Amino acid sequence: MGSNNFDIFAASVAFSLVLVLSFVKMPGGELWKPFRRMNKLLIMCYSAMSVSNVVTAMCGVSDSNDPIMSGAMLLVSMYQAMLFTASCVVFVAPHKISIGWLVQNALAITLVVGLVVAGFVVGGRYIQLALWGCIAIYIAQLIYYCFLFKRCYDRSLQVLEENFDEDMRDSLRLVKNSFLGALTVGVSALVFAMFQLGGIWYITFTCIYTIYYIYIVICILNYRISSGYILKVVSTKSVTEVEKKKEVPDDMPPIDAEEELRISKALDKWVEQKMFIHNDQTVEDIAAALGTTHTVMKWYFSTRKHTTFRSWRQRLRVVEAQRILREEKVSTSTLHTLVGITDKSNFHKLFRQYVGMTLREYQQAYLQIHEPESE
User: Fold this and answer.
1) Mean pLDDT (whole number) for 335-354
2) In angstroms, rounded to a whole number, what is the distance separating the alpha carbons of residues 367 and 361?
3) pTM of the entire predicted model
4) How far is CA 124 from CA 61, 115, 120, in A?
5) Which end of the chain is more exposed for a tag (fewer CB within 10 A), N or C?
């Protein structure tokens, strides 16, 4: 009875999330097309899982070892793993998940479902054979999806870091955690099936994937609000293009003195306007704003400033953080966002590297020097 209630609860949550995803306003345009496709995938997945939970609630869950129930859970999990993996990959590699990819995977899973169901229908020893065959195929599926996501994630991270010229791992943390959550759900289903666990463990599993349902929707809403700059790059750039842009010709002719002066003045104005605190501009956008190209900007920083644009901008951000600590009452826990650094731990490490002390140590040292002496 308890597992039935949990199934009804999970079905209600899944259906509620279907409504949320259905009414979330997605941005228009070609750029957000993969994101809209991903939203539809999740609506399909949550709808299917809602129906599945209702069916399970009606049929009940056995408290004893039940290979057929374990096999049925794995078969449903195969479709679930496909849709959730596709949704996560769309975040980092929109063009990787095509209709063709979805159809091929769905057909392969359907073929497995047919074979396993046939084994269950024949009965006898074929039930256990069908179950363990399903387990082996499911393990292979999870390994393939992990490899697929890691490859797409690494390539997208490479593209993002080259285009934004800074550490972008924190910007993709939401996506990475989404996939790890999906993997946790998948492994939980695998453990349940392998050991043919009963009702109590089924309730635990239901709680895990229900929490994940909610988490993935929160990730989508956050991504929709603040991460358009990621899609701007991963939807239009390729690793090949990145490799070509990394190469600055050694025989590049130097720009004339007048052009150098113009770039220098443009950089001074860029710094004066504190444009370095913005973290959603690609280096191409910045170069265009300075009236030059990415290649010339790289050449200018390496030959004239003897540093990289990334290091130069990092120092500007640290200097700005020092100014804020001296002049404004700002919590050190939010300071990194004010200077354009998304990852808090990276910012603290960077500050200590340049300044030689932590944020609090710097703040306290400044206060001790400038605090008026008590009479």
Assistant:
1) 90
2) 10
3) 0.82
4) 21, 15, 8
5) C
